């Protein structure tokens, strides 16, 4: 049964929507979720900050030596060569030298030890000779050499991280160096999902003719887990209005975002569409892309809904192009643009003008340092193996036609995806 064209609302008024138009439309409907929690910094990896972090101390807190050597005052030395200094004591990390160092004197110092009063420079131990308890410097280093100034990494009062910042291992180290034990982070996005399709069997069941294992629930689960979501797997829902109604009502009550796969193509959207018309406001789109043409998007109450296509590669492509930026927006991230690079094609590539294509590629750097990309081969939207072997999408825009070896293409590396 085909769906009347009049029910397919396209915000642009065109018969089919571009990837950019759809993404812009979706992101414009979404706001950062309310709610945050306090977590120990060790549990804050990949979480989004809900507060501004200001430095309450200088990092480093004291001016200290960057090397093992001898600390002295370089600024008032009469010459730069063959300087002889008296060694008057030790400064060790955690054990400062307690008195003042005068002109012509020096102190043995280790990395991280506080620079003694009166010193401004450290000469590294490999560049001196010891002579009768004195240090002889053949050629003096520049004033301030091998010294780390207090606050040079972070100074008191400075803004270190802003709300929406996603915490990396380096950031967590920075928080520790500031003496911050806990941070307030945005709560995790709650994502519920289910598959639709009478042909789908769960793992452990035996396949009858025409049946397939439900792989989308596993890719969806993994992609959501990678994004740090709280996940609610609702299983396979039969193609029956009551079952679909119950699943959507339940999911929208507990989740911030509901994802389904399958059943949104023109012709088989009937039950899903009927139920969604009843429960919420959902648009059924034809996106000008390959794979992933059919997509449903809308709201059931306050919950965002994405009806992804059924084909396993299309699920992943539409997840990364639409769902991922949506989840990042809900999480409060400010810049949801993905990394994009240019690479040179290693062979000819078939592309018909008309749709934006997300072909799967493998890129590497050649011995000249250039990025080279090759296709994973056959690109059927059911061939999940093409995703599994890829390390990037080759993003080919609507107008592009067949490409030659050596042509430049945009690639979207999977570094953040996988
Ligand atoms: P549909 O969008 O429902 O017409 O499905 C398109 C194609 O994707 C069909 O070949 C389905 O069998 C397949 N498909 C749908 N859902 C799943 C799933 N959960 N796992 C694997 N393949 C699926
Ligand atoms: Mg189906």
Structural description of this entry:
There is one protein chain. By secondary structure, the protein is an alpha/beta fold. The protein is 19% helix and 31% strand. It has 7 helices and 26 strands. The chain has helices spanning 19-29, 169-177, 216-226, 241-254, 270-279, 312-330, 385-388, and strands at residues 36-40, 53-54, 64-65, 69-72, 81-91, 105-109, 121-124, 128-131, 134-139, 147-148, 159-161, 182-186, 190-196, 200-201, 212-213, 230-237, 257-261, 281-286, 289-290, 294-300, 303-308, 341-345, 356-365, 371-375, 392-396, 408-413. The strands form 7 sheets. A 6-stranded mixed sheet has the order 7-4-6-5-9-8, with no helix packed on it. Strands 16-13-17-21-20-18 form a 6-stranded mixed sheet, sandwiched between helices. It is elongated. The two termini are 38 Å apart. Mean pLDDT is 93; it is low at 1-8. The structure holds adenosine monophosphate (AMP) and magnesium ion.
Overall pLDDT level: 93
With strands numbered from the N-terminus, the spatial order across the biggest sheet is 7-4-6-5-9-8
Number of helices: 7
The main pleated sheet reads as: 6 strands, mixed
What is the rounded distance between the termini? 38 Å
Bound molecules: adenosine monophosphate, magnesium ion
Strand content: 25-35%
Instruction: Label the overall shape.
Output: elongated
Low-confidence stretches: 1-8
The number of E-state strands comes to 26
Rg, nearest Å = 30 Å
Query: Helix share of residues?
Result: 10-25%
Q: Indicate the structural class.
A: alpha/beta
